[in-house]
Amino acid sequence: MILFQDMAQDPAAADVMSEEKTLSVIDLIFNGGTGSVLIITVLFIMLFVALYIYFERIFAIKAASKIDSNFMNQIRDHVTNGKLEAAKLLCAQTDSPVARLTEKGVSRIGKPLDDINTAIENAGTLEVYKLEKNVSVLATVAGAAPMIGFLGTVIGMILAFHEMATSGGQAEMGSLASGIYTAMTTTVAGLIVGIIAYIGYNHLVNRTDKVVHKMEANAVEFLDLLNEPL
Questions:
Q1: Quick one: pLDDT at residue 152?
Q2: How far is residue 50 from each of residues 61, 133, 147, 210, measured CA to CA in Å?
Q3: Confidence of residue 13 (pLDDT cuts 50, 70, 90)
Q4: Which of 124, 145, 203, 227 has the highest count of CB atoms within 10 angstroms of its CB?
Q5: 46-60 burial code (b ≥16 CB/10 A, e <16)
């Protein structure tokens, strides 16, 4: 009862008690000092690069995995009937790694089988390199982003303890705690960027492996075709 009377007599105190202290992400970023803002900016740039590479690669891999299920049957018919130029034309009209490997094999027909196999393997290595273009950047971001975020936290902690040391132990706990949790935002940001890049990297590797397995299966099928008796 006395508490309610005091609050009624002092409206300002009631307003202070009813006010809820909220944390704004923007405030956390810009209240952390120049070092924190710089590190957060670097992490945002890394996130943008990681997302750009991920979506660019996922569309490229999706396009590379598309091929007509009847493609190898048509190649088989052309090669069996001795229509090598028609087989090459079909490969040239089909924009996929499988078609380019097959075209490389068709162009080597008449040479020893080992030479054909080597040519297909070399072409396959080049196609895999194209599929994995810039994917290693995602792995770099996944590993570097958490460390950069932790660096920001360490810098913030050093500044907080430096303030405590220079104030002769009279630093306000409120401002000290505020500086510490603001510094921790860089670690959170680094972990978020790192996790996103890590998931994206592994997804791209998985999708690339599927395309590579399809390339290998079609290469084996083509070599088996050359081994068949005419």
A1: 80
A2: 16, 13, 16, 22
A3: very low
A4: 145
A5: bbebbbebbeebeeb
The pLDDT confidence band at residue 156, using thresholds 50, 70 and 90, is confident
In angstroms, what CA-CA distances link 225 with 25, 67, 79, 113? 62, 19, 8, 11
Helix (H, G, I), strand (E, B) or coil at 111: strand
Distance CA 87, CA 93 (A): 10
Residue 43's SS3 state is: helix
> Angle of helix 173-227 relative to helix 97-107, nearest 10 degrees?
30
Q: Which residues pair with 111 in a beta bridge?
A: 109
Query: Per the structure block, which two tokens stand in for 96?
Result: 């996929």
- What is the Cα–Cα distance from 102 to 218, expressed in whole angstroms? 8
CA atoms in the 13 A half-sphere facing the CB of 110 = 5
Reported as a single tens digit per residue, the pLDDT across 166-198 is: 766 565 665 566 566 667 788 888 999 999 999
pTM: 0.74
Considering only residues 230 and 135, tell me which one the structure prediction assigns the higher pLDDT.
135
How far, in Å, CA of 226 to CA of 84, rounded? 12
Query: Is 196 in contact with 47 (CB distance < 8 Å)?
Result: yes
Q: At what angle do helices 173-227 and 33-65 cross, to 10 degrees?
A: 20
Number of CB atoms found within 10 A of residue 82's CB: 11
